[in-house]
Amino acid sequence: MADMLTEPLGRLRLGVNIDHVATVRNARGSAYPDPIRAAQLAEAAGADGITAHLREDRRHISDEDIERLMETLTLPLNFEMAATDEMQKIALRHKPHAVCIVPEKREERTTEGGLEVAKDENRLAHFIAPLREAGSRVSIFIAADPAQIEAAARIGAEVIELHTGAYCDFHAEGAFAERDTELERLREMARYGHELGLEVHAGHGLTYDTVQPVAAFPEVMELNIGHYLIGEAIFMGLDPAIREMRRLMDEARA
């Protein structure tokens, strides 16, 4: 879910999350499919950056994957991580272009909500300070809630990533009134985050059917998309799957 390169308002970047290439690899305990190869294919298909989440239980991306990505990537790496001492040490050793702080529970299948920043400001402010000093841009993955956005600004985050999961879930369920309400909330909070001086990103659960309304928000500078693209790659290949997402994003922005 985070950040690539700073550019003027208007340019929408695509970060491709490669976690679930590693999920398929780990299901057999083999060396393939290789997430680093997926990152290289993503770059050729028009991705602006690569996102990888090193979970505490290492269920998909591994420490070796991060090592290899740092050695081989020419695109910026967005390192998703929980706010733990272990992950902070790993991030400080590698110094990726960006780190995105996400909530993490071992029993969840995927990240279920945004980080609770407002109730943990002091700890998180101290946690991200050395990451910023090391040169990594710090993004906070949060719900579209003004209290969380304000807290993210206060602790010194440079970027927020708005959780689009509820919007996408409502769409999938056919709950279109709730979907539209959530979309308007995302729109308002993207505007609010931008007004507070934060760079605004968005992600989680976006598909071909749901990406364009979010891509059209002028304040959103980056979308991070992974699971859906890896799923579509089974049927159409990774390169065309990413190119179609890129096309839809550009069409919405235009």
Automatic annotation (TrEMBL):
It comes from Actibacterium atlanticum. This is Pyridoxine 5'-phosphate synthase. The lineage of its organism: Bacteria, Pseudomonadati, Pseudomonadota, Alphaproteobacteria, Rhodobacterales. One of its GO terms (cellular component) is cytosol. Pathway: Cofactor biosynthesis; pyridoxine 5'-phosphate biosynthesis; pyridoxine 5'-phosphate from D-erythrose 4-phosphate: step 5/5. 1-deoxy-D-xylulose 5-phosphate binds at D19, H20, R55, H60, T110. The record marks E161 as: Transition state stabilizer. Catalyzes the complicated ring closure reaction between the two acyclic compounds 1-deoxy-D-xylulose-5-phosphate (DXP) and 3-amino-2-oxopropyl phosphate (1-amino-acetone-3-phosphate or AAP) to form pyridoxine 5'-phosphate (PNP) and inorganic phosphate. Belongs to the PNP synthase family.
